[in-house]
Amino acid sequence: MQPWQPLLDWWFGDFADAAETAAARQGLWFGKRDSQDQHARQCFGTQVEQALDGGLADWAEQPEGWLALILLLDQLPRMLFRDQPRAYAGDSRALALVRDGIARGLDAQLTPIRRVFVEIVFEHAEDLATQELAVLRYTALRDAVSPAERELFDDFLDYAVRHHAVIARFGRFPHRNAILGRASSVEEAAFLKEPGSRF
């Protein structure tokens, strides 16, 4: 078994299609549960630390390993270090890794539901040009899936559009301000009181 396989099995499971995968894993992907965070810490914490320290680079030689390394840098720190600055510590390496892997065609070798977690790295960037790329790539991903999966991928695209709108307005994600020790503007403080202002 490849060293990244347990992580991919936990993150995606083994389901017949994208809809079944998303239905079974949405709570893991986008929920906030202490039990899930603890499981991630116990099972994958060492690999997260290795990835954040610049290790496991050889994983990126294969599409599935590349995807797993992206998860270790982008998704799992948000669980292990929730509401701490280290939650975003892997973002810059993840972004570079994604750009490199796309240039090498690794994303094209993954299923659409797995590519969601490649594109999400663009969605997490506090940079407007990268946000525009996220919307373009999620649009292309939505357009490439079967009609039966279109609604699910419309939802992923909608989240990308919403992230883009926040960066277009503020140039950063205001909900990160308190975590990162940044002062919020009056406009940002008002925005944070609105429903759906925190991703």
UniProtKB/TrEMBL annotation:
By its UniProt entry, which Pfam families does this protein fall under? DUF924 (PF06041)
Q: Where does the source fall among the domains of life?
A: Bacteria
Cross-referenced SUPFAM superfamilies: TPR-like
Q: Which InterPro entries match?
A: DUF924 (IPR010323), TPR-like_helical_dom_sf (IPR011990)
This protein's name: DUF924 domain-containing protein
Give the source species: Pseudomonas solani
